[in-house]
Amino acid sequence: MYLCINGDIMEDKKINPLLTGSAETMLQSFYARAKYSRKKNAKFYDAKAIELVDKIDYDFSKAEKDSTMSNGVIARTIVFDELVKDFINKNPDCTVVNIACGLDTRFYRMDNGRIIWYNVDLPETIEVRDAIYHESGRVSTIGISATDPAWADKVTKRGKMLFIIEGLSMYLTSDENAQMLSIIRDKFDNATVLMECLAKKWVNKEHSNGVQREHNKKLNNGLPILHKVPPKRDYGRYFCIMAEKGGTSHGGLTEKLSLFFHAKKQEVNAYGR
User: Looking at the keywords, is Methyltransferase present (predicted)?
Assistant: First the structure.
């Protein structure tokens, strides 16, 4: 077992997450952040990811082979970190809801000592997360699907609300994406949503290696549903973080994120009631 004290992990034996299917992709994302953090002049440093990669009993060679997805994870992490940090700086007493959190450790990079943070994911994923992190205090976990309205009832509304939807929309159907956004729109006031969407040109692209292909996951374009579920208040906003450009020959990440994966912040029109 692992003894966790104030978020610090004390080793006793290896963690065996026993994940399958789409839930396994969270380990690839986790590994990509840890590996990148070890690089000189990295744009972010994920200390907890580095710590845990060495303690998780898992074959990360799959992640090593899928450089396209791994570099995409790094690029979106840089962009999301920048946007989340900016939001927290402007709203230091805000509440952040991280949907499809997986093993994400962004709270520990963003914490200002005041924010309230909720990590939401499927029950089996939260079970693994809770066993590793034992989070408490200003960080809570909710083991409910993002398309089930019940998760929203477990979130205490305090201050400005920020919702992070990273690495999820492309795995949901159009109806599921619409349901997820409708829950946020209908249950929360003054909410800002940061949502990653896959560009249309990437929807039917097959990766030659990696976890994604192994589990035969069909990717979907999440962008159109943002127009189907407009914010209900004139101050509500969606920001779409979209994978815009193709090409897979560039394995390295540049200061401008990457040549094959250009992350762009696009504000989607907000409509009144």
Answer: yes
**Model pLDDT for residues 83-126, shown as the tens digit of each residue:** 899 999 999 999 999 999 998 999 999 999 999 999 999 998 89
Residues 165, 167, 168, 172: what is their CA dihedral angle, to the nearest 10 degrees?
A: 140
- What's the domain range around 114? 20-268
Tens of pLDDT, residue by residue over 64-77, are 776 777 777 888 88
Distance CA 234, CA 272 (A): 4
Q: Which residue has the tokens 């992640």?
A: 63
Degrees to nearest 5, angle at CA 98 with 92 and 104: 105
Domain annotation covers residue 10: no
Q: Give yes or no for a contact between 261 and 197, defined as CB atoms under 8 angstroms apart.
A: no
Task: Report the chain's mean pLDDT, rounded to a whole number.
Answer: 72
pLDDT in tens, 4-37: 434 444 445 666 656 555 556 777 888 889 999 9
Distance of CA 8 to the CA centre of its chain: 22
What the block records as the tokens of 25 is: 């992709």
> Which CATH number goes with the domain that contains 183?
3.40.50.150
